[in-house]
Amino acid sequence: MGASFADTRTDFPRLIKDIPTPLMVLDHGLCFIAANDCYLEMTRRTEAALLGNFVFNAFPEAEDRVAVMREAFKGALAGNITSLERYVFAIKGNDGISVDSW
Prior knowledge:
By secondary structure, the chain is an alpha+beta fold. 36% of the residues lie in helices and 15% in strands.
C-alpha cells in the first residue's frame, strides 16, 4: 500500500510555485502568505507588493462584492465547501492599465 498524503514530506512552497494555474494563499486574516508566478502575472503584481497585505486592500472592490467574497472565504476557513460565481475584476497594474480577470 502506498504512503498516505500525511506521510509524505511535501515541499508546499515549491508545490504552490510550480502549479501552472494562478494560485494565492491567504491566512485566517485574509492576508496574502503566498502567490505563484501565474497569479502574479495575471494580477500584474509583485510578490513583495502582496505578501502580508489584506486581500481587499491589495484589490479594492465594491462593498457588496466584498461581502459575498468575505463570506465565501470565512466558510472555506471554517471547513465548509464554498463557491463563488464568476466575477470580472478590473485589476490595475503598476503601469495604471486595467485588465479584466476572472
